[in-house]
Amino acid sequence: MTRTIVVHSHRGGTGKSSVLANLALLIAAEGRRVGVVDTDIQSPTLDLLFRLEPGFSLADYLLGRCEIEAAAQQVGAGSGLALYVVPARTGTAALRELMSTGYDVGLLPEGFDRLARHLALDVLLLDTHAGLNNESVTAMASADVLMIMARADRIDLSGVEETLALAGRLPCRRTLVMSMAPEGIDREEARRRAEEVYGAPLAGILPYAPEMAALYGERIFAEAHPDHPLVGEFRTIISALDARDEVSRA
């Protein structure tokens, strides 16, 4: 049975899409069948991170131009990875058309289910637009686990409450990830405070890594720096997402 993990942030700039790409690559490297859908139609990223070829997209599916499985591109097929990515859109024409004509929001969960069945996925990862809109809320409603990302600062963490308030009304587990943590942060104190204030477990604390910025989004970090300590933190998050007792429905 496919496990759907939605990665969301209240504000942009958390590194959400980059973290999701790394998690997807590492989970697939474990031998699992992984699907990724970029639902951020306003500001897509995953087509660039995964260096996808031009082709159909989620926007094309929503506009009735293709079935969603036709938009899935296999990544790293030569290395034996079962990793499939559906980009949000290519170009701006589809965005303008979606904004002018709209679409049936019910097509999203239907498409997620169809993709999971067609590709026999073990894990489906959904990237979302920062904040709350039709696509992000619909994706969150499809989640088995909602992973909420925030930068390790008071201003960004203050936005988590709104997302958690919504998540509390959805039948999904939830967990937090803090990103871009400064050097020397007291990890145990940060964990204690986050879990106490937000009532959700902290799956990981990702330090700021200048090596990631140096990649300019041209490669996925775990691919470029497989032995970096940050990749170990990604694996810790995966373990937390896999361990059902480390996420909460509360």
Report what the structure shows.
The chain has helices at about 15-30, 45-50, 60, 95-100, 105-120, 135-140, 155-160, 160-165, 185-200, 210-215, 220-225, 230-240; strands at about 5-10, 35-40, 75, 85, 125, 145-150, 175-180, 200-205. It is an alpha/beta fold and about 250 residues long. An eight-stranded mixed β-sheet has the order 3-4-2-5-1-6-7-8, sandwiched between helices. Strand 7 (about 175-180), helix 9 (about 185-200) and strand 8 form a beta-alpha-beta unit. Helix 1 (about 15-30) crosses helix 12 (about 230-240). The longest helix is centred in the first third of the chain and has 14 residues, at about 15-30. It is globular and about 50 Å long. Residues about 245-250 have low confidence and may be disordered.
Largest sheet: 8 strands, mixed
Radius of gyration: 17 Å
Report, as a whole number of angstroms, the end-to-end distance.
Answer: 23 Å
Number of strands: 8
User: What value does the average pLDDT take?
Assistant: 88
Listing every helix as H and every strand as E from the N terminus to the C terminus, the arrangement reads EHEHHEEHHEHEHHEHEHHH
Bin the helical content. 40-55%
Global geometry: globular
Bin the strand percentage. 15-25%
Question: In order across it, which strands form the biggest sheet?
Answer: 3-4-2-5-1-6-7-8
Q: What class, by secondary structure content?
A: alpha/beta
Low-confidence parts:
245-250
Helical segment tally?
Answer: 12
